[in-house]
Design a protein that fits this description.
By secondary structure, the chain is α/β, with parallel strands linked by helices. It has helices at 5-27, 47-59; strands at residues 42-44, 67-70, 74-75, 95-114, 117-142, 145-154, 157-163, 172-175, 178-181, 185-187, 190-196, 206-209, 212-215, 219-221, 224-228.
Length: 238
């Protein structure tokens, strides 16, 4: 086959475009150019990065002990069917530094989990310096994480509205920072906003807390609640 100069030039242009498009696509991946170590954390600065982190963790393909750092304020409020980062089978076991930036959410999960993080379990820092704002509605709602089995949530906050959708006789739980805590530590955290439950709630089947809804272990230190739910006593730092 004989190539003319014009054909060769066109071929190089096409190859250059392919390489350029591949580079741009790859650059969106949070591990591009970073090792995920304490001194060189993965940078989460797009919604696509956050979704990729969630998918890797939830599928069990992300190794534990990686470090992540939020690089920009994010808004995932258009993702109303957001699935939380970390499951019981594949919990989030990394180190997430919010860098004092914010993630705005609008999570409506009906009878499911309405929270940015799902199950969190690690022995070192887990989530810190993170601000979450927006609206949460689900059978299990929490400002930062649905479950804290181990590790630390430090200097985090939620501002907005949390609500519980009643599904027949299902139980429901709302925690300003964490829904269920079995171990670890929550410190220097703030919940500000409204915890709203359906009328005629059954206190034997539903539990609400300004910081934690259900706590069977671990510690809470220097946390505060700004805001209230109807009778106010439910907004205690328990």
């Amino acid at each position: 086959m004989i190539f003319t100069n014009r054909k060769i030039s066109a071929l190089f242009v096409v190859l250059a475009l392919v390489v350029s498009m591949t580079s741009c696509s790859w650059a969106e991946y949070y591990d591009e150019g970073h090792s995920g170590s304490a001194t060189d954390p993965y940078i989460i600065d797009t919604n696509a990065d956050l979704v990729m982190l969630r998918d890797r963790v939830n599928k069990g393909t992300e190794s534990a002990d990686f470090y992540y750092k939020l690089g920009a304020d994010l808004n995932i409020s258009q993702t109303t069917n957001w699935e939380a980062i970390g499951t019981d089978s594949h919990p989030f076991s990394g180190h997430f530094d919010g860098n004092n930036l914010s993630i705005h959410v609008n999570i409506s999960r009906g009878g499911g989990i309405a929270s940015l993080f799902g199950t969190v379990s690690a022995s070192d820092y887990v989530v810190k310096n993170l601000k979450v704002s927006g609206n949460l509605n689900g059978r299990y709602s929490a400002g930062i994480a649905n479950k804290l089995n181990n590790g630390t949530i430090d200097n985090c906050s939620f501002s907005g509205t949390m609500s519980f959708s009643r599904y027949w006789n299902d139980d429901g739980y709302i925690g300003g920072i964490v829904q269920s805590m079995t171990n670890g530590e929550i410190k220097n955290c703030t919940m500000s906003g409204t915890i709203d439950a359906p009328s005629g709630y059954n206190s034997n089947r539903e539990d609400f807390g300004g910081i934690v809804a259900i706590m069977t272990g671990g510690t809470i230190d220097n946390c505060k609640v700004e805001g209230c739910w109807r009778d106010c006593w439910l907004c205690s730092n328990r």
